[in-house]
Amino acid sequence: MLSRITPKEIHATESTPGNAPAERSGGTVHAHRVMLVVQAFTLLPGTDHGPSELAAATGLNIAVVYRILQSGITTSIFLRVPPGRYRLGPGAARIGMQAMATTPDATAARPVLERLSRVVDGFALLWVLSPYGGPRKAYAASAPGRYDFESFGLPLADLVEMGQSLRVGAAGRVIAAHLPPSLVSAILEQPLPAGAGPGTERAAAAFVTSLAGVRESGYAVSREEVPGWSAVAAPVMWGRTVYGAVSVVKPSSLMPEDLALPVAATTAAAERLTVLASGDADPYPLAG
Predict the structure, then answer these.
(1) Tens digit of pLDDT for each residue in 134-147?
(2) Predicted model pTM
(3) Pairing between strand 85-88 and 229-238?
(4) Domain 102-278: assigned CATH number
């Protein structure tokens, strides 16, 4: 049975269209309904949805949903896919790309990563969420310290594959923990990288269960998920949306059992980049 999306889940205003305050204009109510339908696509499982499914999820009349879908086709916000279903289209992607253009670039991130690398004596990296062809992560910036990518001792193909996967490593788990269930399901449909190490959680159910712990603690730890290496990672958020993750990586033999310092330094770096992603001035400028 399809569950109705609650206003809290959909991040809408407190009043749903069905009980909108009388002082709202007709245009405001309609705009609110449009946003409910758009956001439902980001929360429902799968990519293609019919008017009935969207109406049940949002609490809107099916005729209203149908009119919204038809109007969105003309601007490519929605695409019609047979039989009688719809998905987000290139117009929606253009909006997302324009929004992402305002987020911090590698130049802004590098001083934060360099400080993290010095404090932990590790390889500090910033990963960003890449949605193309299914959720993955993409390398954005790094401060390698005394290491480099050749230090991992992996074939380039394995290094790239594991670098992109959200199933392997602390950074992948941190990002996955802040994605909606529909995208977590898409992650589980992707095969594990061939070079994944012995510390990788291979059972899908256990992987999903671990995400709740990551959200609660605010960080993730991986040991030997990349063979020979261990890592600590924390999320970089943009409002309620995950932007990416900061991770610091060290050879497993050099990563301490007591992770108090790596965790504190990594979460502090992630919090600083979260502030930068919000567009606010950094209230805690770096001091050496």
Answers:
(1) 899 999 999 999 99
(2) 0.80
(3) unpaired
(4) 3.30.450.40
